[in-house]
Amino acid sequence: PSIKALTESVGFGFRWNEDRKEYVHAAALIVLTPEGQVSRYLYGVKYLPSTTRLTLVEASENKIGNMVDSVLLYCFLYDANKGRYTLAALNIMRAGGVFSVLLIGTVVLIALYRERKREGSKRPGTSD
């Protein structure tokens, strides 16, 4: 395959500048999914390690990375204007809500368990 076919397939444009005798193009990192679909364009020449890592995890559909990366992807969304991942406030509030419900449920279950255990030890015919 030619460079032209490759660049067209991922939507990367360039042109020849006759005056300068060089190609003119944007600096970008193009990340593809395992199926060859464009997942993300990262523009520029400097990429934050965290942005690069999360972009690769996202493109791989969580096939690379670990559980922490999956949680980070839930709590952060890519902001194309800033060129990096930013906090996803709504997702963080959702996660906080789920965590709160689980925590309260656990506390209630422990309290019920202890109450039943205490009532069981106070039954007649049992020794204290």
Characteristic key phrases:
rod-shaped; alpha+beta; 128 residues; two-stranded antiparallel ribbon; 48% helix; two-stranded antiparallel sheet; 2 domains
Share of helix, binned: 40-55%
| Spatial shape | rod-shaped
Oligomeric status: single chain
Mean pLDDT: 87
Main β-sheet description:
2 strands, antiparallel
Q: Count up the domains.
A: 2
**Helical/strand content category:** alpha+beta
User: Rg from C-alpha positions?
Assistant: 27 Å
Layout of helices and strands, plus pairs?
Layout: H1 3-10, E1 14-17, E2 22-25, E3 28-32, E4 38-43, H2 49-59, H3 67-75, E5 76-79, E6 84-87, H4 89-121
Antiparallel strand pairs: 1-2, 3-4, 5-6
Question: Describe it for me?
Answer:
The chain is of the alpha+beta class and 128 residues long. It folds into two domains: 85 residues, no CATH class; 34 residues. It is built from four helices and six strands. The chain has a two-stranded antiparallel ribbon. It starts with a helix and ends in a 7-residue tail after the last helix.
Concise overview:
With 128 residues, the protein is α+β, with helices and mostly antiparallel strands.
